[in-house]
Write a structure and sequence with these properties.
- Helices cover about 65% and strands about 0% of the residues.
- By secondary structure, the chain is an all-alpha fold.
- The radius of gyration is 24 Å and the shape is rod-shaped.
């Protein structure tokens, strides 16, 4: 008997899922970088003389 291949819909869905995960991963990395840059900008420098109690 001939082995039945996966339907086209399933193949397209798998490809879409991979693309979506890739996009979400890139967005998450961008958010992490932005957060780290904001924290770095707001963190007081050791020689500016300002301290928060």
């Amino acid at each position: 008997m001939k082995k039945q291949e996966k339907p086209t819909i399933i193949k397209l869905s798998e490809r879409f899922d991979k693309q979506l995960l890739n996009i979400l991963s890139q967005e998450l990395d961008a958010l992490k970088n932005t957060k780290n840059n904001i924290i770095k900008t707001l963190r007081p420098k050791s020689n500016d003389g300002l301290q928060v109690a």
